[in-house]
Amino acid sequence: MPVDAAPAPAPGHAAPDRACGVRPERVPLARPAEAARALARDGAVLLTGAEATADALVVAAATVLGARLRELYPLRERTSRDGGPVRLHADSLDLVVDIGGVPTRRRHPDEDHVLVQCLAPAPSGGASFVLDAYRFVDQLAAEEPALHTFLTTVDVDLYGGWVGLRGLPARPRVARHVEFTRSGRRVVRRTEGAVPLHRDPDAERVRESLARLEARVLAAEERLPRFTPAAGEILLLDNYRCWHGRDPHAGERSVRILTLRTADAR
Fold it and tell me: What pLDDT digit, counting tens, does each position of 5-30 carry?
């Protein structure tokens, strides 16, 4: 559910990003219609009652998203020990590998949903947080219109900052932070790999805008409500609308991740 209450701002500073936080409603996987309504309303839902298995993510995706499913990408398991923070982001990556001489897509820049299942919560820390990026961008239109204009009108190379990562294409992935699908669905991207286009005459201005965006996102992150999924629970996100992250933690923490595209994807 959206969260409207927020701590008071520090003296001399405007309250940043009010009402952008989302505390996902917990809904049993056995009630898919209710889960779908929560996802449509808030952009995120926490599914309960699933086993901590790889099959559970695929079943959850099919149960809640149904016939809209089009493409599933390989499951990823992540275990971190005494992990640092994971900053607010939307999942996306342009990753194609060669398997037996056949180009095979393992990630897609326009994944429109992501499921994250908790396999083992951290013994200390590691709380999750979610931001409604639609609200965030709408606030920028009123509070920082120049940054809003940058996000909606300026092309960047989404993954240029990750040059050298094996599997990434040499061809730049050019896009704006805010775009729309053919059906009118809004996409709000968030990647730490974004850089100015090669030889962009406005490269310095683009870097300044990216730095302002980073500062604004970090300020918002501090104010978001925290929640901690239990083992087996699945966070299902509208990846076009919501950004997510987690706090640092002590000890070991494990999750399994599934990204996908539906019929509504770009």
Answer: 333 333 333 344 557 999 999 999 99
Which residues are CB-contacts of 266 (< 8 A; sequence separation ≥ 6)?
110, 112, 179, 181, 182, 185, 187, 240
C-alpha distances in angstroms, 190 versus 45, 47, 87, 186? 20, 24, 10, 13
CA distances from 143 to 3, 22, 147, 149, 216 (A): 19, 21, 9, 12, 11
Sequence ranges of the domains in the chain: 20-262
CATH of domain 20-262: 3.60.130.10
pTM greater than 0.85 (yes/no): yes
Six token digits for residue 65: 């998203």
The torsion of the CA quartet 68, 264, 135, 62, rounded to 10 degrees, works out to: 20
Residue 54: the pLDDT is 87
112 SS3 class: coil
8-state DSSP, 245: E
Nearest to 246 by CA among 229, 264, 266: 229
Query: How deeply is 99 buried, as exposed, middle or buried, from its count of CB atoms within 10 A (0-12, 13-18, 19+)?
Result: exposed
